[in-house]
Amino acid sequence: MTSIGILGAGRVGTTLARTLTEAGHRVTLGRREHGAETGTPPVAGSAVRYADHATTARTADVVINATPGDSTLDRLTALRAELAGKILIDVSNATHDAADGLPGDLCHPGGSLAERLQDALPDTRVVKTLNTMLFMVMTAPGTLATPPTAYLSGNDEQAKQTVTGLLGDLGWQPGWIEDLGDITTARATEAMILVVPHIIRRNGFTPFAVSVAR
């Protein structure tokens, strides 16, 4: 059992919290609102705890960033002390919204949010993953007709091994996980978000992932 803190209580955060709790992990869901620890769990009867962002980061061994990517860097830089010594799994994409509210241009062209997080949080081991799919695929990869790919980017091999184990708890088979290398490779997977809005505009929010076919 791993102590996991999730920053962000939207669709991504609550979906991950539900599945990781069911897998036996101790999960705290971090919200920005004052008094969020008294909130209602995303699933009736679930063991998910609530806390503010600082408490969530400070009390977890592994922290998942599920906050909006365009404001993530500022939010998490403010938690530098709380995130020191932790594994930070970044599943977000930093984009400016297009006119229809879907992802538009990248906030960090020529680089990546994950790289900026690692630079801003030198005592934290950042791993990028799960940012190349719709949120429902993160916890149900086996529901797609074609095996999807979860990419990994990070400088610390042990941290990536820990994240690989958590991906297994989310339903990802070993052959579906592609370790791309160090954190600089995250700029490639973050750029994949540029194809996503075009697919959504044509097909709606039908589950899909941007994957490698072999």
TrEMBL record:
Pfam families: F420_oxidored. One of its GO terms (molecular function) is cupric reductase (NADH) activity. One of its GO terms (cellular component) is plasma membrane. Keywords: Oxidoreductase. Residues 4-93 form the Pyrroline-5-carboxylate reductase catalytic N-terminal domain. GO terms for biological process: copper ion import. Coiled coil: none annotated. This is NAD(P)-binding domain-containing protein. The lineage of its organism: Bacteria, Bacillati, Actinomycetota, Actinomycetes, Kitasatosporales.
